[in-house]
Structures are given as structure tokens and as C-alpha cells.
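Thread title: Can someone regenerate the structure for this chain?

I was given the following input by a collaborator and told the matching C-alpha cells would be attached. They weren't. Posting the sequence so someone can regenerate them.
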Amino acid sequence: MTRLVVILAACLIAAIPSLALAQDKVFRAWFEAPQTVMAGETVQVWMWAIYEIDSVPETVGNMDAAVGSIEVSGDLAAFTSISQLRNGLALILDRGTPDGPWLRDFMTVQPHGPGINIDERNPIPMLMFEIETTPQTTGLLHVDLRPFTNESIPYLSWFYLDGPDHWTSTTDPDVSLITTTATIRIIPAPASAAMLAFGSLGFTRRRR
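Best answer:
Regenerated them for you:
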């Protein structure tokens, strides 16, 4: 019995370092946009991201890249178009291709090199695009981060200047990605609302 206890204790001691090294690595991405816009307006949508280790924002290194697509869903009658990337990290290698309610295959990076000003914020605004809404049409539009064509997951990466492994990304088996949908409510423009009210008043008078 004593020998069994000693063996179990030895196994536990050997396992403790590996347990201590296990880390919860998570990329989180979300969109910031007005919650409510008037029909016919064009709205800017920013995508932000953060990289965390054990629920704490990483402070060593910097966000390196964002590669993926954007999907707009919901009441698409209220949707007119989506733009290419208007803003991004230091270099925008591909502004993406608008395709109906999709912005397909954008790519923005900030590599270390001559003339590149590295933004070390974490969280950080990664990219911005615009959505044009349809005049006199209301509804809810949802905005989601999607993968690059033929990929299974959107690609976000973090860069360490020093160390054997310079990059950590959402494609690593020990890394998670959590994305949050943005919802934009499209409401009648003031003129449209006034016309609706006037029409309703006229209808009421006719009934009388």
C-alpha cells in the first residue's frame, strides 16, 4: 500500500508542471456599429479583436493579421450594398470582394519591417467597412465574421518578436475563436415617418 501511494504521488508531481503550462488561449472578435440607423443611410462598421491567455489580454507582442470574409444577413430588403475594406491594419493586402450581402476574402496585416508602425493595442480595431441601407425600408441586419473562401475558420494571428514560435493563430489546435454578431436596426427616416403618419391621418379622416 505504501508503495502504491508513493507511485501515485510521483505521478502527480510529474503531472503538475504540465498542468501549470496548460493555457487557455482565446481570440475574440466583435463589431462596433450604431445600433440604430435611418433607412437609406450608410453606416461604418468596425471589427475589433483581442487575444487573451487565461482570460487576461496578452501584453507581449501584437495582433498580426486578420483574414476572412463578412456576411450580412437578416432583412436583406433593407440592405443595399457592402463596401470593400475602408480601413485596416498597417497593410491591406486584399480589400475583399463585395458579392451581394458578402464581403469575401479580405486580408490585412501589420508585419514588422521598415516603415511599418506597429499598433500594439489589445484589444485593437482591426478593420472597417461600410454598409449602405435601402431607403424607405426597415428591418434588422446582422453582421458576422466568416472564413476566407475554402477555409474552415476566420484567421486571426498574434505575433511575438522573440521566442521560438513567433505566431499564435486561430488555426492552432490549442487556440479558440469566439465571435459576436452585430445587429443593426433600420428605422424609417424622418420624412418617411412623417409621410406614414400623414397617410394614416388621412385614412382615419376618410373613415370618419
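The chain is about 20% helix and 45% strand.
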